[in-house]
Amino acid sequence: MRKTAAFIFILFVFISCSNDDDRSSQHEELDFILPSEIYPDKGYTLNFSKEKPKGFPRRHKNIEGVEYDLIYLPGDFLAWKEQQMSDMDIPFDTLKQQYSQLEYYMLRININQHGKDLTNYSDGDPVDNDKRISFLAFGMEKNIQLEQEGLTRNPAIFHFERTFKITPYNTFMIAFDKGTIEDKNRTIVLKEELLNHGLLKFSFSEDEILKANKITYKKKV
Question: Cα(first)–Cα(last) distance of the chain, in Å?
Answer without folding.
Answer: 26
